[in-house]
Amino acid sequence: MTKAVIISDMEICASITYQTGAEHRRQANKVMKEVLNQANLTFGNISFVVATGYGRMNVPFADRQITELTCHARGIASIFPNVHLGIDIGGQDAKALKIRNGKLIDFVMNDKCAAGTGRFLEVIAAVLGLKVEDLGDISAKARTRVTISSTCTVFAEQEVISRLSEGVPLEDVIAGLHDSVAGRVARMARKLKIEPDVVFTGGVAKNRGIVTALEEQLGCHVMVPSEPLLSGALGAALLARDIVVQAIERHQPLPRGPLKLEETTFFQ
Amino acid sequence: MAWYMGIDIGSKTSKGILLKDREVIVKHLLISGVNYRLSAGLLTNFLLDQAGISEKDITSTVTTGNAETVVFSDEYITDIRCCARGMHQVFPQVRTVIDIQGQNSQVILTNSEGQVKNFVISEKCAGGSGRFLDIVANVLRVRIEDVGELSLKSKNPVIFTTGCAVFGESEAISRVAEGISKEDILAGVLKALAEKISALVNRVGLEEPCAVSGGGALNTGIISILEEKLNLSILVPPDPQFITALGAAIFAGEKSINEASS
Questions:
Q1: Do B159 and B33 share a structural domain?
Q2: B58-65 β-sheet, strand order
Q3: pTM for the full model?
Q4: B125 touches A: beta carbon within 8 Å
Q5: How many domains does one find in chain A?
Q6: ipTM at complex level
Q7: Which of B34, B125, B174 sits opposite A152 (nearest CB)?
């Protein structure tokens, strides 16, 4: 997903989330135009743009690129100032962030294997003809849960089909999948210290089944912001504001990039 | 004169072989689908039809692969043992068998009798199996049987940053969007796959000569990369997908001979 957030001095003016697709540059431009429209602003009104995430180098109009880890930490801490552990599960990876006083101290991540990421749930939901957004509600009906013994997404897919063909209720299987994802992420997060407040972000945080499973695995309450997908983009916007504020305080010119909001494509 | 049958239910395809004494009379392959019992039944009917015999003419049947659920066989023997036995029948000199299946890869060390000395399976991750290739071939709209030949034309193989079959799919899509040729992408996948398989070989140790079986053995591209990586030449039997079923059929024959003599 591609997300954009515009902030003023005090608050979020506009935010937007779009499927990324294959053409990152074109998509970045499109998302920027949309979010400007929503905020009723033009590109000229924007003081500074920070790009983050996997595609941060493919944002032609960004003034600076900052890693998603730093941005996430900043975004999460702005909503939950007492956060000590951030867990972010997205479509491509899962990460745990150790945060102190709003700053990133340490992190662990998995982007090598689709198990324990949103992709795991996407692949299996597609096989079952379900929408990922419905998984949480389905699993809430589970009476017991199935143990999914395969780690690998590809093998888990077959395991799920086998369980269903044995007559195991769908909700029990889905609850088992949530345990599998939460278990893998919790094992990874334990490499850092599990210390409340724990905040869970990323698209997968919208799934209440995973939130519950994660709470059980970690043995503590897990907080989710109202817009869990936006914490990285929000952090990027806040860091952009920090840069602007710092330049003004030091009476220095803004270190802006030379690029504009032009129609660019991945193929150029 | 006696008839023996070997049935190998794979995750992707099921194979059956009918032997008359030691001679292969009929063999057949079909897609496994979701109902293994049904595939086994269809296979058996086809083999019997082709040979013009009925079920009661079969002296003994051995099943292997995912066939634990198939009821009509006399015995179930693991695909590791059947694969080793089948390869021994074709190439008695072989000591290492690399079996590249639809969902697992395995490396088997055998002795001079075709018995299993040691083995290792890639059971945790599909990254080292034919499934990785299937997924990427599907993205590129290339038939799996054409992958090997196409990959040999690659001048500049893509380097895959992931060994994960699921992430490999997204990576392949990104490379397509960048305008990189199918040949280079396929050669890149084969390299990633060969990386995983040679790691398996190194885990169990390698004893020459080495042969390859399973559907993956039909892929000339992967064999040439493996040969280069392992620095040896690899034997490819005719009909490599049937090696395990052949082993099962031979076990069926040996079993009934042993029972008759005891």
A1: no
A2: B23-31, B13-20, B3-9, B58-65, B75-76
A3: 0.75
A4: yes
A5: 2
A6: 0.73
A7: B125
